[in-house]
Specification:
Immunoglobulin-like, 4-stranded antiparallel sheet, 3-stranded antiparallel sheet
C-alpha cells in the first residue's frame, strides 16, 4: 500500500516558457488541479505560480499498487526578461494544462520636447 502524501508534501509541475515578439507564453502541466486552486502573480518581472494538487481521499488506498503522481503544494517562480503589461495577462486551464499569456509592455515612443532659450 502506498503512503499518503503528508501535509507538507511538495511537488514540482513541469513548465515550458517561450517568448515571441509580443509576449511570453508559459504552459504548466497541472493534471487534477482545479482552476480555483491556482494563484498567479507578477511582481517585478517575476511570475509566481502557486497551487496544490490534493490527494483524492475518497479513493480506496488499499487498491493502489503504485503511486507515481505528485501531490501537495507547489510554488514556482520565473524571472522574465523585459517589461510585462500586467493588465493584459490571461490564463486558461484546459485538459490539465495551464497556459499563461503575458504580453510585453510596449514603449510608447514618447517624444521629449527640447526648450529653447
Amino acid at each position: 500500500m502506498p503512503a499518503e502524501p503528508g501535509p507538507g508534501a511538495v511537488w514540482t509541475p513541469a513548465v515550458d516558457i517561450y517568448e515571441t515578439a509580443d509576449e511570453f507564453i508559459l504552459t504548466a502541466e497541472l493534471p487534477g488541479v482545479e482552476s480555483s486552486g491556482i494563484d498567479i502573480k507578477v511582481v517585478d518581472n517575476n511570475l509566481l505560480l502557486r497551487g496544490e494538487r490534493r490527494w483524492d481521499r475518497e479513493a480506496n488506498r488499499e487498491s493502489f499498487q503504485r503511486v507515481e503522481s505528485g501531490y501537495g503544494k507547489f510554488e514556482r517562480s520565473f524571472r522574465l526578461s523585459g517589461g510585462i503589461d500586467a493588465g493584459g495577462i490571461t490564463a486558461e486551464l484546459e485538459l490539465g494544462v495551464l497556459r499563461v499569456t503575458l504580453p510585453k509592455r510596449r514603449s510608447t515612443g514618447y517624444q521629449i520636447p527640447v526648450k529653447t532659450d
